[in-house]
Amino acid sequence: MKVKATIALGVLLLLATAFLLITPHDQPATSYDVYQHAAACKAELGIQKPLPTLSCLDGTPVPIYVDNEEIQQDNWEQLSEDKRCDNPHWLGGDMGCWTYSHMQVLQLDQDNVMVLNCRQKGNQLQKNWFRKTLTNLGMNQEQRKARYLKAQGPAKTEMYYLYNTFNDIGIILRNTRSGKSCYFTQYGEAVVGFLPPLDAPLPSKEQFLASFNKEQARPPKDFPQALWYRDANQAFKSPAFTATSGCVACHNAHGFKYSPYINSTQGLPEVTAMAKLPFLAVGQPFIDYFNAAKILQVNTDNIDGEPQLCTRCHSMTTSGTCGYIFDSATDHPGVVLGSWLTLSSRHNSWMPPIKVDPALMKKHVAALQCCCANPQSQGCQTRKFGPTVADLPAGFYEGKGWMAGQEPGLCEGVIHSAQWNAEQL
Q1: What is the pTM of this model?
Q2: What is the pLDDT of residue 345?
Q3: What is the pLDDT of residues 344-363, one digit of tens each?
Q4: Residues 193-240 pLDDT 10s
Q5: pLDDT per residue over 94-149, tens digit each?
Q6: Average confidence (pLDDT) over 264-288
Q7: Which residue has the higher pLDDT, 40 or 26?
Q8: 22 falls in which pLDDT band (50, 70, 90)?
Q9: For the chain, what is the HEC assignment?
Q10: Closest by alpha carbon to 160, among 148, 142, 143?
């Protein structure tokens, strides 16, 4: 069955719409809850110790840039309606350009990494209720804390929203040796960045608050308890919901997602190492989604005798790296493709500089784009890379198991024509 990148894009856009319409209370009933998922994840990934206590405020604030200038309190107006930032945290234009997102990468043991991404999502025309004035936007953590501590009465509660609430929480557990992966998420409304344990019962309120860094301000007495004191099943969407909400569709290629936003904080394993791993999903809902979406790894035949440039570092898949994200990484208004892929000093660079002739790079990109849209075409290659060990083709870890496309035309001419003219793009 031909998998079209345009179909994948449409699915992702529908999921993005669902992100805005569904609240945490709209989750489907399921017997496989967050605690069971956490237990399965630890067992499958081989995590022996209790999972760490997580606070979004422990993360590294991710700077947002416009034309290489960091957005802060005094220059927030640069993020105007018609100005996009260099490194959006969500690849959707202005909607991904909010400041005050925090990210942390925790090495749990020799093989396992835990990533916590606490983001702010909104847009200039539809500010939600806890971002009411421009004077609050662009402030860093210390500035927000100082304003909270000085505030009195109802203003104190309002300042705490600005200091320690986020409306998009994502947790990834990834075994960097086996490729097994787990996902937990919450989004759609403001929740306090003090997160409950995933693998233990919720402690008393006093013990819960005492488990976080004492330098991080606690909620005021009249702050809604439901936003900060809730167990894992209340704090995160169900595994069944999470499996269909975009985590697998977006992250399968490397387990993590790499972009200028992520790269600006560092800490993730190298993408070249992640590209060699399969995507082994933990939890039946995640396995079912992967299989239903028929996600495949994509490559091209050699181009004029040379292996595909892009897949020397990246895993390209029919969902997650093909489609609109591919276009975001390889095309930028007003910038020649060869320069866009090899920038070394800009905050919107997608990858380290590489010494490749721009015309050659264009040819490899065009060939891979064609195979992304037409993976079964002659000149293209596909293979299964998950979601379980049983699904992996023989010799996967040695780079084997690729199936040649059989459909005539389409991509074959682009890939095999020695007289191909790069300037036609």
Answers
A1: 0.85
A2: 46
A3: 445 666 776 667 777 888 88
A4: 999 999 999 999 999 999 999 999 999 998 999 999 999 999 999 999
A5: 556 778 899 999 999 999 999 999 988 754 344 443 344 445 678 899 999 999 99
A6: 91
A7: 40
A8: very low
A9: CCCCHHHHHHHHHHHHHHHHHCCHHHCCCCCCCHHHHHHHHHHHHCCCCCCCCEEHHHCEECCCEECCEECCHHHHHHCCCCCCCCCCCCCCHHHHCCCCCEEEEEECCCCEEEEEEEECCCCCCCCCCCCCCHHHCCCCHHHHHHHHHHCCCHHHHHHHHHHHEEEEEEEEEEECCCCEEEEEEEEEEEEECEECCCCCCCCCHHHHHHCCCCCCCCCCCCCCHHHCCCCHHHHCCCHHHHHHCCHHHHHCCECECCCHHHHCCCCCCCHHHHCCCCCEECCHHHHHHHHHHCCCEEEECCECCECCCHHHCCCEECCCCCCHHHHHHHCECCECHHHHCCCCCCCCCCCCCCCCCHHHHHHHHHHHHHHHHCCCECCEEEECCCCCHHHCCCCHHHCCCCEECCECCCCHHHHHCCCCCHHHC
A10: 148
Q: Is the pLDDT of residue 18 over 70?
A: no
Burial class (CB in 10 A: 0-12, 13-18, 19+), 284: middle
Angle between helices 141-150 and 154-164 (to 10 degrees): 170
Output the CA–CA distances (angstroms, integers) from residue 205 to 159, 194, 216, 218, 229, in the order listed: 22, 12, 16, 11, 7
The larger pLDDT score, comparing residue 338 to residue 67, is at: 67
Contact 420, 414 (CB under 8 A): yes
Structure tokens of 129? 């209720």
On the question of pLDDT at 89 being above 60, the answer is yes
Query: Measured over all CA atoms, what is the biggest interatomic distance in the chain, rounded to whole angstroms?
Result: 73
Residues 6+ apart with CB under 8 A from 112: 45, 46, 47, 173, 174, 175, 176
Cα separations in angstroms, 353 against 223, 266, 342, 356: 48, 17, 4, 9
With tokens 């035309």, the residue in question is 409
Instruction: Tally Cβ neighbours within 10 Å of residue 167.
Output: 19
Locate tokens 């898949």: which residue? 317
Going from N- to C-terminal start, the domains of the chain cover 32-251+261-269, 294-424
Q: How many residues does the chain have?
A: 425
What angle in degrees, to the nearest 10, is found between the helix axes of 5-21 and 358-373? Answer: 70
Q: What is the pLDDT of residue 81?
A: 54
Pairing of strands 54-55, 112-119: unpaired
Position 28 confidence tier, pLDDT thresholds 50, 70, 90: very low
